[in-house]
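One record is kept unedited as follows:
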Amino acid sequence: MNEKEARAQLRKLIKRGDTVYTCLNKVSRSGMTRHISVHIIKKSQIIDITWLVAGVTGWKLTDDMSLIIHGCGMDMGFHVVYTLNRAIFQRGTDYCGTRDRDAGYATKQAWIN
């Protein structure tokens, strides 16, 4: 699946105001790299969208299908969802009917264990 197809699929699955869930699967010994998976809930079903996120962000996947995220010193789950939002949403009207300044805040982020 190419980037355009992944973006179209994510736009069908995620709407502004939804919550996108991140799961920390591994932290490197140095603490500078994390393996994070990304999920949404639709009709009481947990859907793993990690591979679609990789398709629109260009991040690499591990063998266990987690995103490889480099860096530290901030909430890396928020970073993943913010970057995802910037990749799939355009600036425009948000879910409350007000004007977006930054599409990165189009959805909420929450951690799951």
